[in-house]
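In the current project phase, we have settled on a layout for protein records. A sample record is reproduced below.
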Amino acid sequence: MGEPVPVDVVAFDPVLEAGTKSTLFACPEVSLTAPGAAPRVVVMTVDQVGRPELDVLRTVRDTTARPDVVLVAGELAPDGALHAIAAGARGLLRRREADVTRLSRAVLAASRGDCTLPPDLLDRLLERSGAGGRAGGRSDGDAGPWAAGLSDRERSVLRLVADGHETNEIAKQLCYSPRTVTSVVHDITQRFRLRNRAHAVAYALRVGLL
């Protein structure tokens, strides 16, 4: 095991802040930063995802350290999730689901540059996309190369990436080799000129293909 990931907590409510820190204390893979120290990941805990929360999220991302952000929200609807991703969130969790295991997984995924979302939220976004909806608020003419879509295999891999699974875990669940999983992600990022796995997940969601 490597060094713990340095994490800070941002919350509008001191009770929520204390509860989030208490959960993080039980995660051996992370460590809470001392005052004034630069975090690698910030866990932001809110009741809902609105303009004030998104403004704070952008402010956190724009600090000198440019930490990745895991947003834990009391309510998390598809539109709010997309706005949070567009504002720079790497991970999204509902507060009632943010136990030690899921929160630590989201934090560790964010520290690797990956993006996590609740599986049922992904399903709702996929349903909207499959029904011809515009999950990202864009028309088909604005989707650029994404208009060509993703294959079923690519969707399956990206969904597990979004749920915070690592390459070996994805390979095991889908009965692929780790090399195949790596190749699928590489092909997606190269084909659509994306920076990394998190960018692929976020952008696919924004244009309504995942």
About this structure: The longest strand covers residues 5-11. The two ends are 33 Å apart (CA to CA). The chain has a mean pLDDT of 80. Residues 178-191 form the longest helix (14 residues).
